[in-house]
Amino acid sequence: MSIRSTITSEFEQVAAEQKRRLAPLSDDLPLLESGLDSLSFAIIVARLEDALGIDPFSAEEPVEFPTTLGDFIRLYEHSRA
Amino acid sequence: MGAGARDPVLYGAAATVRLSELAHATSLSAGPETVLGKTVLLMTGDALATALALVELDGVAHRLVLATPDLPPEHVEHVRKTAGADTIVYDSASDQSRAPGAGTAILGGTALKPILGRAPVADESEWILLTSGTTGAPKLVLHTLDSLGGGLAAREGHEPRIWATFYDLRRYGGLQIFLRAVLGGNALVLPGGAEPIAEFLARAAAHGVTHISGTPSHWRKVLMSGAARQIDPVYVRLSGEIADQSLLDALTATYPRATIAHAFASTEAGLAFEVEDARAGFPSALLNQAGPVELKVEHDTLFIRSPRTATRYLDSDVAPLRAPDGYVDTGDLLERRGDRCFFVGRGGGVINVGGRKVYAEEVEAVINGDSRVRMSRVRARKSPITGAVVVAEVVLTERAAADESQHQSIRQALIERCRERLQSHKVPTMLSFVATLPLTPAGKLIRPDA
pLDDT (tens digit, 9 = 90+) per residue, B106-120? Predict the structure, then answer.
């Protein structure tokens, strides 16, 4: 599974578990309008760390916090590189 | 509450009030003589209504109980009884029926009605703040305006400041900012109810915010909002959770001309110190510093003695807030690395998920209620988003452990059990099975910090 599909599948799964209505996923979807709250994002980030072995937010260099879903996915894709 | 030479201004989401207006007007449906000497449960929902009520009630009511609007009904009753509240102030944003038997009900709000004049200020009021107890019921903490606001006006300096805060005013962090603004003769942009972060930032920017305060979780949301640079503050403040280096670096990069400060404070211990060098942790030298605030470390835990600590709990069945020597146990664990001390977590298994506290024992109790579980240990897993999330390790009974094919369905059942009985931030985000869990010689679970 690609990083992109791993991420979108986690978004969908966590939204279902947290009983939140997920906005249609697209690269320019602002994360704060996704329907997910901070707790949901925390769960997604933790599970992606387990699934992909990446936690881009704990890197040595300060990261540009992602604003959109596209930013979020790119953050992970670039961390893997 | 006396103000500085300038007339403080409160900018609510939908209305603005200059405190000088309160000399001849009131936000309350009853005159100040109605609350003279009373114990008032403040349950307004709107931030501006709350701020106005605080200013009007201080020095008139005997006791102000700062109840947060999201308090569950069963806790409201506990708070009302423990404080001896005989009056309640509510507004259209809160629900008065949530506190039946609360005595006299007064409607607050943001619209001012003229009155002939104010009653002279009576005795000093007691300020009761709420904190989290182990079982979820809040503890009632007794403060005075002196312990809460003493010395704040002097620290505000001479230049006018426009403060903004993300916090609820009734939490210690928000109350500090409110008092700094009001006692220092400055302005304060108050948060709206369900106001999106970007809108709050736009509003704060329109008022020319210079000083702004929130928790690390608030600030992470700001960074994700895309609207962070709408404001151009000179002072960015964090408190309420551990501020990690990556967040401090991100804020320094976003607000290059601002001082980035993080403060250590708790409802019981009060404001202990502020760190303004944009580095996580605090200088070890603070531990031996002379001054009104004294710090000491015992069993790796930070203790504080200062004129800013609360006096006592109102609850009768809890350990005393202050030890006989006056020190308050913060419950926060420290690690000393050379000239710097770092907060590494809480003793006693308290987990902070985006500003909301979770006691490990509370979640363990729910998991342990399933007959297939022998014991469990809940701990924090670090999260760059919320600071921590909850994870659980479970030891099954021999019988349940034997059949591995059942483990996945047991895991799902345990998580579902937590979902039914606990608020969402308390539900374990991951649950693993382990053969054993380590105990101290006294038989207590060893809780390493995340």
Answer: 888 999 998 877 766
Q: If you average pLDDT over residues B181-188, what whole number do you get?
A: 94
Confidence at residue B348, expressed as pLDDT on a 0 to 100 scale: 60
- Extract the tokens encoding A69: 């879903």
List alpha helices for B208-318, DSSP H.
216-225, 245-254
Q: How does residue B296 score in pLDDT terms, banded at 50, 70 and 90?
A: very high
Percent of chain B with pLDDT over 90: 49
Q: Which residues pair with B131 in a beta bridge?
A: B139
Domains and CATH numbers, chain A: 3-80 (1.10.1200)
Which of B351, B419, B424 should one mutate to test binding to chain A, selecting the residue with the greatest count of A CBs within 10 A? Answer: B424
* B226: chain A residues, CB-CB within 8 Å: 30, 32, 67
Angle, CA B248 vertex, CA B425 and CA B161 arms, to 5°: 100
Residue B318, CA distances (Å) to B238, B270, B306, B313, B333 in order: 30, 19, 21, 8, 21
pTM summary value: 0.73
Contact B139, B51 (CB under 8 A): no
Mutation for testing the B interface, residue in A20, A65, A75 having most B CBs under 10 Å: A65
Please check whether residue B354 touches A, CB under 8 A. Answer: yes
With beta carbons less than 8 A apart as the criterion, state whether B376 and B393 touch: yes
Contact call for residues B99 and B43 (beta carbons, < 8 A)? yes
A46 closest CB neighbour out of B354, B383, B424: B383
Q: Domains plus CATH for chain B? A: 9-333 (3.40.50.12780), 354-433 (3.30.300.30)
Q: Which 252-271 residues of chain B touch chain A by CB within 8 A?
A: 253
Q: Cβ contacts (< 8 Å) between A41 and chain B: which residues? A: 385-386
Helix axis angle for B172-183 and B47-57, nearest 10°, is 60
Do the Cβ atoms of A42 and B386 come within 8 Å? yes
B342 residue type, one letter: F
Concatenate the DSSP letters of all residues of B369-417 into one string.
TSTTEEEEEEEEEEETTTEEEEEEEEEEPHHHHH-GGGHHHHHHHHHHH
A18, B425: Cβ pair inside 8 Å? no
